[in-house]
Description:
alpha+beta; five-stranded antiparallel β-sheet; 8 helices; 23% strand
Amino acid sequence: MKSFRAISFVGVSLSSAVAAFAAGSTGHAFYGDPPDDCHPWCVHDQNRPQPRVVAPLPASEMETKAKAPADAVILFGGTEACLSKWCSDKKPNEPTKWIVKDGNMECVPKSGYVRTKEEFGDCQLHVEWAAPSKVEGDGQGRGNSGIFLLGVEIQVLDSYKNPTYADGMACSMYGVNPPLANALRPPGEFQYIDITFHKPIYKDDECVQPGWVTVYCNGVLAQDRTQIEGPTGHRARTKVGPLADKGPLKLQDHGSPVRFRNIWYRPLPAAAAKGGVRGPLSAKATAAKRKELAASIRKDAAKKGDNAVEQMLRRAESLVYEKDDATSKKVEQTACAYAASLKQLSSGQLEPKKDEVKKVGDALKYLAKWNFVPADFGPKADVEKIIKAQGWDKKK
């Protein structure tokens, strides 16, 4: 067998230099896809900076915040019956082989991924997980699992005093973006994970709104609206593209008996680009929504019955959303009659109507300011005179 001498560079042997580098390494060189025009690091780059370690919030404080809101969909609440909401990922017609133990859903190694039968898209998701108390392995081989939403993985890993490549740490968007901080508790303790997920929106093969994911780990921000470019993967750069509209929540079997509990989600309303009303709408969609609001308000006005003032105010409110000559005429007629009736009352008779008169005055002032009624609208001037005469315009 040939023997090799260590090659020396500037007084330092190559073998010792490699050993020194390896001691601080958190991954492998020449492992994942190389940098490109938009990504300065390799996938799973050993040279990528490690997130700082941050102490998590006390578990007692997190327990209160982790309770499911009234409108949440419970995916796992700690009972055997909850497993009926889950199935094998590869064989959806078969029940999962994961088990419920001490109120936790525990991965059975080599049984395969588990997935929910229910499918959803944009959401607020809460998951609590715990790596095994008995520490075995290191790096990616210690307490490994994953939370998958539409093919995007938020990493589950025992990253407590366990270095690995930065984009593979707990709460990383796996292979894409490291967490902002390492706020993990020791193995065996539960980690409280809160995720807000918005998938990218495509129309005609063009991205009209990027997707984002925000992650909190034990109350500490780990991902801050990290952009979703497409499904994540191991060693490979994410391929930019659309995700499915809906899909199941998947939990990974990576050979470790990781435990999960208190899993729930809240569906989020559709964004404007998807036909919803979150964010700026197109001119056409805005006009349609304003017309819809105006019609709804006028319908409500008709329910006010004999309360002419409230009926007038609701009709006037509808003009803010949509111009309508018939409604404007009714508002003017009612406002004129109202102002005329006030002029017939004494100061003592007006006093009980103070709040109502001021409410009408504020409404007419608003309508005139924004040109929904003329600036010289007669009833507006009459009501303002009465308010001033009564001293109701003075601030106390």
